[in-house]
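Notes from the 1:1 (GR / supervisor)

We went over the backlog. Supervisor wanted to see one worked example end to end before approving the batch request, so GR pasted a single chain during the call. The sequence is below; no edits were made to it. Supervisor asked that the structure be written out right there so they could see what the output format looks like.
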Amino acid sequence: MSTPYTPPTPQVIDDDAAHVTRGPVQRGERALAPDLARGAMLLFIALANGAGVVFGGFLAVMPALTTRYFGTKNLGANYGVMFTGYGVGALVATFAIGPIYNAFHSYVPAFYVGILLSLSGLAVALLLRPPKPVAARIPPRVVPHL
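Structure output shown during the call:
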């Protein structure tokens, strides 16, 4: 009769001694090298600051873009619709991430979906032009010559 399989115990480098010990990680031992952890933290801080700058820039430019596209006549209503669309998108994305994680056991596919949606929004923004003003769309009246 064979013995049941037991996985090997991980080897951990002890900080206090220059030898390899066997067994679970004890208090005071590091799982990551300090330089790697410091670099990852600096990268996280840099990316979080970059996202904050972009987010703030977007919210500051949105009323101006709404005015440029739709004009100032119904600016309050138009901006309300634009901002509501932004809120609905954020709400839908929040609840869509759970099923994506359950299906793939990772958040990475959710980022791919976000990248695709961002690129499609960029394409729409680059291809869409503001409509012509109402005065330019009204055909001129033909006045008979007397």
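Supervisor's comment: Strands lie at 11-13, 20-22.
Batch request approved.
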